[in-house]
């Protein structure tokens, strides 16, 4: 271990090496193991301007340019199938109408249908639970 006090020039040289190492890492492919800045060789005190300039890959685009590039990337084909009626002048079916019906109108009907489909044993169990909760049994 050395007992040397670092001067401002030393700190500047260390900072320059660190920046050069960072710029070099930006240009290299990702995923490779890289050497630390301490082990990097000193290639001189002058930085290469190409290491500093043009770090950002894309320039900022306007909204119109972004929309244009999005539309250019989209395929022309439309997805999904529009089913044609047998007779174009025919009215819609009940199942089609049910799909467009407000949900709150259908909720009550759903409960009634579920209750009517219960077996006798299920109805008996539910009645017993209801009476126990009410305290009559």
Would you give an account of this structure?
- With 137 residues, the chain is mainly α.
- It is 52% helix and 0% strand.
- It contains six helices and no strands.
- It has helices spanning 8-27, 49-52, 63-73, 94-100, 103-116, 120-134.
- It starts with 7 loop residues before the first helix and ends with a helix.
- The mean pLDDT is 79.
In terms of structural class, how would the helical and strand content be classed?
Answer: mainly alpha
Question: Biggest sheet: strands, sense, closure?
Answer: none
Mean pLDDT: 79
Cα(first) to Cα(last) distance is 89 Å
Helix content class? 40-55%
Number of helices: 6
Q: Rg to the nearest angstrom? A: 37 Å
Question: Given the C-alpha coordinates, what overall shape results?
Answer: elongated
Strand tally: 0
String of helices and strands: HHHHHH
Attribute tags:
6 helices
In short:
This protein is an all-alpha fold. The protein is 52% helix and 0% strand.
Which SSEs are present, and which pair or pack?
Elements (H helix, E strand, L loop, with lengths): L7 H20 L21 H4 L10 H11 L20 H7 L2 H14 L3 H15 L3
């Amino acid at each position: 271990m050395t007992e040397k006090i670092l001067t401002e020039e030393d700190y500047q040289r260390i900072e320059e090496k660190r920046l050069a190492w960072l710029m070099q890492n930006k240009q290299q492919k990702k995923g490779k193991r890289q050497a630390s800045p301490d082990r990097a060789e000193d290639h001189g005190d002058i930085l290469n301007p190409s290491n500093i300039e043009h770090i950002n890959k894309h320039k900022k685009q306007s909204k119109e340019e972004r929309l244009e590039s999005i539309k250019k990337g989209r395929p022309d084909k439309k997805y999904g199938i529009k089913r044609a009626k047998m007779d174009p002048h025919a009215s819609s079916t009940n199942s089609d109408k049910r799909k467009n019906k407000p949900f709150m109108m259908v909720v009550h009907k759903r409960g009634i249908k579920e209750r009517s489909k219960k077996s006798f044993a299920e109805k008996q169990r539910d009645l017993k639970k209801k009476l126990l909760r009410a305290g009559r049994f």
